[in-house]
What does this fold into?
Amino acid sequence: MRTINAKEVHLYRLDLDDSSSKVVGLNDQLLSEAEKEKANKYVQDIHRVRYQRGRSWIRKILAEYVGVSGSELNIQEQERGKPFIENHAIEFNLSHSENLAVLAVTHDQQVGIDIEHLSRLIELEELSKIHFLEPELNWLAGFSGKEKQQAFFWLWTAKEARMKITGEGFALPSTEIEVLCEAGLPVAYKLPTEIPVELTTLRDVFTDTACCLATITPVQQVVQF
It folds into this structure.
């Protein structure tokens, strides 16, 4: 049985397209009936396989903390869709960008995580005007070209992680989240202030990605697996 203390975050990484992964042969053996039903709704094989591998992977890992088999793990969803383990202190959050997935696990504290490919094609200027506040836009204006796109995704993943920590998602508008940025990275949340949240940037999760972590209390150690 795997253990974790309250000041740690355990971070797991998976390439969902990696055919050598330990979860490849599981298919949907560990999945709940609801998860199997969702998997079958994917039209394209690649998306269905990624979903099956991702959910199997989550179940295998979390089962080690809870002390049950992956298929027995009782994963429920909050009103806005954030998953949780019923009647257990282990909390977790998942993010993926195309084939790359990250899972953050904590003990007795809420957690949110988001990852993005830095090279993903987007309408940068349009999205920035929609989602970023004036101080953030001023910070972003200090960059150009590839560096500006990277700065955009670092800021965006910080906002997404904040949306996900409480399970609010887009019910918490991105323009109600203000992120303090210094140099090329986000460093802290300025808004909202009702629930103070800590921000951690994770620069070595995968090559060419931005990844941000949101927690209620400061993280003393991020342990990567």
In short: Helices lie at 33-40, 45-66, 124-131, 134-140, 145-165. DSSP finds five helices and eleven strands in the chain.
